[in-house]
Fold these 4 entries.
Entry 1:
Amino acid sequence: METVLITGANRGLGYELLKVYSTKQYISFPLVRTEETAEQLMNTFPKNCYPIVADLNYDDAKECIANIVSKHVDSIDVLINNAGISGKEFLIETVSTEEVNNLFNIHCLAPIRTVQACIPFLRNSDNPRIINVSSRLGSLTRMASGEFINRDFSYSYRMAKAAQNMFTISLSQELQMDNITVCAVHPGQLITRGGSTDSDTDAMIGATNMYEWIETINIINTGSFVQPLVSNQPW
């Protein structure tokens, strides 16, 4: 039985991913921030679901992750870094460094924390995969083309996702010799609470496409940036 750890699993894409992986008989480790949410998930997914309560803004989340995972399994097959928050300010006069710092923490530092906690378990998998949920807005190529001019997308979100993409590239190169696949995905313009004005895809469709694509990849695909089952994305 394969295993998956999903951050930000309480709503939106993360919750839909949890639903998909549960139906596929995976042992799942949804990471959430409150005991109340963890209890709700255990009631909804009573079989092979072991919620982890941790705040990815802080380094002690690593110990929380490792403690729960080690109680149930020796390996993790799929780590999905999905947790994220949206930015607000799109003008240089109004953007705050506090907002930028908050987004960098959850989109860039949090994945570092989860990988550090999970890497001993990933190394025990026959086909370990790390998937960082990125965004089209993290693509320097698409951004530089002028595709998103006057769309009022926040400074902090675009900057954080671009930095997260660099983390994906760097990590994929480092872990290639360990046979650990590292990829970034743009899940599509999802209809979620933090979705963009041009959202057109149900989160369940995005989650299903991700699952089907993740099932097909291995080390040959490491370093990819894709919209699963749709297209490759330019860095």
Note: Helices lie at 12-23, 35-44, 61-72, 97-122, 140-144, 155-175, 203-214.
Entry 2:
Amino acid sequence: MEDSVNPVVVGVDGTDNAIRAARWAAGVAHKLGAPLHIVHARPYLGHNPSDAIAAVRACEMSAQQERASAILDEAGQAVHGDHPNLRITTAHVSEAVDRLLVDLSQHAKLIVLGCDDLSVAAAVLIGSTTVAVAANSMCPVVAWRGGATALTGQPIVVGVDDDDPSRVAITSAFELADRFAVNIVAVHAWSTRRSAGDVTLPFMIDWNAVHADQRGHLVTALAPWTRQYPDVDVQYVVDQDKPSRALLHHSEDAQLVVIGSRGRGPMAGAVLGSTGLNLLHHSVIPTMICRSMSPHSSKSQFRTGVQ
């Protein structure tokens, strides 16, 4: 990790899912002109595990410790087969995987991990490696999902709101779309309900005009990025729906969905919010979480290196 070019980091645990995630991460690293750093560490224990869970995890840790070198070799060989010229480094660390990846995120372009099976309740009450890393990482985190082991020509979907996390997500999405040479689908969801008192807006409203106004705001909001990335075509989508449902619907034909998170907090589930947790639970494609508290949040995440 002494290379002047910050790496894409991927965590592997010996599963086929992790190998596929590593191959996908290698494709991203290739496009970003970055090395790939493959790591193996102790499993995440979750929030206050019971004695029974701790005992089972201890057995898993012992078995994985013995297989660590083989796990890293297998991942490295799979990646090398796809990208023989990509610089690849590996490391086996005895630290818990969530703490390791958060530490590495300080110098990484991107963290990628095969997303564990996740329910919203389990993420909040028990914990999840994916949620724990995404809630504390200093760089974007991709929860890899689906069967794709290589990048495609499909678009990148990004959720657009008026807050700082959304701006970080927009920046990341446009930079990746530019590097991948794909389009952006920018999704802004809005509701007929007001947040204060949950009051329904009157029915005697020209909803076509409201929709047009919302779309106009979306086009204006994205103007700084469309000027900066003139080669990236943008599809503007305004959807009268919940954000998570709108993003899931419009990501059906995409290769990546990108959203912002709220920042650091005591409960990972609260930090990511309902949209983030719902996407991690239901999305069938890789999902990128971008935190606004990153020290790089106001500048490019991916520009170092050559395409």
Note: The longest strand covers residues 88-96.
Entry 3:
Amino acid sequence: MLRLKIVTRLLPLFITFALLSFSCSKNNSSKIYKQTQAQLESQLNKPDLSNETQFGIINQIARNMLAAKDYNSLILFLTSWVEKHEDDPYNAYWLLMTANAYLETDASPVASYYFERIIRNYPDLIVQNKSVHFLSLQQLIQISTEPANRIKYFNQLISQFPNDVSITEMYYRLALEYEKEGEWAQAIRTYTLFANRDDAPTIQLSDVPNAYQTAKQLIDFNNSSKDWTFETIDDLTSAIKKAIANYDYRKLDSYKSKVNFFSMSWQQDENADNAQSSFSMRAYMRGNKIRFEKNIDDSISSPTEAYLRTWGWHSFVNVWYLYFRKVNFPADPEIHGRWEWAGIYYGEKL
């Protein structure tokens, strides 16, 4: 892998030209800008330039164009150079600047082409301690809208740059892309890799709240028997009502979801540690007169969620709303869309 150590040694030259470029831009002096570029291009045409000097001149011509926001000239200059100098060891860097110029002009598809071209056709290059391939992959992930492509890019980051990224975060984001693509076996496998990482329980992803809990729920549900689900909401509520009427706590216990069943007040978060429950209904049925509404509460129910008001459970909190939801698990078409008893809300609805 080629490292551009020459960048550091040429910093004084770069700073001189950069200051001049800034002055040009600030004074809006296209004449000075053109003169500066002409002088640099004249130097570039001199014979027997060292690789170091040649790189410095090309780089400064390009940086002056960037400072002037002369993106069209920059793109033409760099792509022409790469086409005419196929053996230039720094072509990956020139194409990286080209791709970024296209991003500045809102031409993301063209930029993607150049980022892909860099990764596919050129050996990696280190510029100011940054890998050109790494920078290209980062940009591709940002601008790509196709899950299949993002899967490829995330896998490349994980395999090629494990020390430059959070592998834990990469696994989670890769699993999301597998999920979007409908590759459920790979999604669950990758969620498992994520959940097994030491820092997974504490990782904070700004755009993904409760990443660890979400992954664990999916993994645990996948590994469970799923034998507590019912085909329809009517089948489920009928079974629940019958068990309550018969004071059959064993049946009620068997109908509860075996994965992440919760019991909490309306103000609590379902993912809170103290919301998860594994208690038996026996203690709350013995000696109590339990009743339930004839129908689910339509005022708070929806096509994917349903609530049944019940009362008589406990002198302290008399009213319990039993919460049912449609199973969202496309990984198993036979289970996806069935209904489960997922939790209990204590007290009257808010």
Note: The first strand starts at residue 2 and ends at 3.
Entry 4:
Amino acid sequence: MATAADIAAMRRAIELAARGLGATSPNPVVGCVIAGPDGAVVGEGCHQRAGGPHAEVHALRAAGERARGGTAYVTLEPCNHTGRTGPCAQALIDAGVRRVVYAVADPNRQAAGGADTLRTAGVEVASGLLEDEAAAGNAAWLTAVRLGRPHVTWKYAASLDGRIAAQDGTSRWITSAESRADVHRLRALADAVIVGSGTARADDPHLAVRTAAGAGAAPVQPLRVVVDTEATAVRPGARVLDDAAPTLIAVAEDAGGEPPAGADVVRLPRADRGLSVPALLRALYERDIRSVLLEGGATLAGSFLAAGAVDRVVGYLAPVLLGAGPAALADPSIATIAEAARLDITETVRIGPDLRITATPATTKER
């Protein structure tokens, strides 16, 4: 039975894990808290970057000898393999930790088994504490391990009546400066940002993360991806071709055009509409992309939804009514109300004058 102290320590470990978002991919975010034999916290740590020390190592270094006989609270089952760093299960054993409590079992076969190693060494092990909260913070990595593709967040900005542009095509700006700044936060947390050819033609987007003055260290820039089926939308001089971030242009295998220099190119099979979404996600996964922010447009979002490849929806709704113009979602192969993509709302937040709604497909919970 978990105590109030156990819950508080694990919740702190989840907070620590979140510090690694946007910097640890393709590895998970992990937080660790070490409590001494008397229950006082003696060490904390998080996984800060891929290839660097794991959360347990940082926490054990902070705790030193005070970890002996204590309890380690970890958001993910301690790893049991040697990669660029050593196994954390063995590090905890060597430090003399008496008890380990972790939230989420490691689904990665290569690294799993840490709990068994700990138990064999005589360490008391408990699992599942605040599992849902810890899993939510690690959704991108868990999705990638379980499904073999990146976790996809579809983001859109619309008027209150669901229009992403006016009837004449103008769209700058439906939402507020505060919402647009928040989108840069989402970009900074993603490994890749994707737009389609329509958005590339209409907006000439830059897609890099803009850092506010005085914000500290520059963010890790996501891979900019343009789905340009016919290889005609990205022209020389396009903003995505600058050196602010790497760029990948996805085109059809038989596309007659040739993308301009300044970006990598991947040729993929066609689908009924545009490119094969599973093939695109597979190509990104092979490039160590574990989280994707899908920014536009409506047709591309419809293709992802029809392919069952939207894991989270983030909608920014402005207190504006347009009455006409393109909708946020186009042709997702939904014919009747019975086929509607049902969502579970997980958060609603005011962002300046706008409302940000976050939701996940109801079927996600069954994975």
Note: The chain has a mean pLDDT of 91.
